[in-house]
Design goal:
single chain; about 170 residues; mainly alpha; UraD-like; 9 helices
Length: about 170
């Protein structure tokens, strides 16, 4: 899809495209309403500004649209495109040993018990062992710090997915 095509979509169509990039309905609606965008830089800047203006509940809604690291399905429904992108982003977990994957699963459970939301990390390019090390480092954070860190990780994921969205059908 081109930026011009995104700008010409109906509001509902644009929201559906934006939801592929970030699972917050409020974010997707505001991004749709912010169109037209002159260039990719303006789109990315607006995406960040909208993201940081959202409520914690909006952030949590976006988190729920992700599968846990090492898993395939999110808690909430995802589009086929979003599922494909999640799988690509987590592709380095495929070759991980059972010990690392077991530790990640246990870490995911502990993280969710401690913070009340799933462990969010921008997984692109990271091995399962790297993601486990990051999880182990972050598990000791305060709730306020961790929510902010998770929101930043979601922001990074959203930026990557916006770029993929505008790369076209092969993305």
């Amino acid at each position: 899809m081109t930026l011009d095509e995104l700008n010409r979509l109906t509001g509902e169509q644009a929201q559906a495209e934006f939801l592929k990039c970030c699972g917050s309905m409020h974010w997707a609606r505001r991004m749709s309403d912010a169109r037209p965008f002159d260039d990719l830089g303006q789109l990315m800047k607006e995406a960040d500004q909208v993201w940081w203006s959202l409520t914690e509940e909006d952030w949590l809604e976006a988190f729920r649209a992700h599968p846990k690291i090492g898993e395939k399905k999110a808690t909430t429904a995802q589009s086929d495109t979003a599922q494909k992108w999640s799988a690509q982003e987590q592709s380095k977990t495929a070759g991980a040993g059972t010990d690392v994957m077991s530790a990640l699963a246990a870490g995911n459970r502990e993280y969710e018990r401690r913070f009340g939301f799933i462990y969010i990390v921008c997984a692109s390019g990271k091995t399962a062992a790297e993601m486990l090390a990051i999880l182990n480092q972050r598990i000791g954070n305060t709730m306020a710090d961790e929510l902010r860190i998770a929101a930043e990780e979601q922001r990074k994921i959203t930026q990557l997915r916006l770029a993929k969205l505008l790369e076209g059908p092969a993305a």
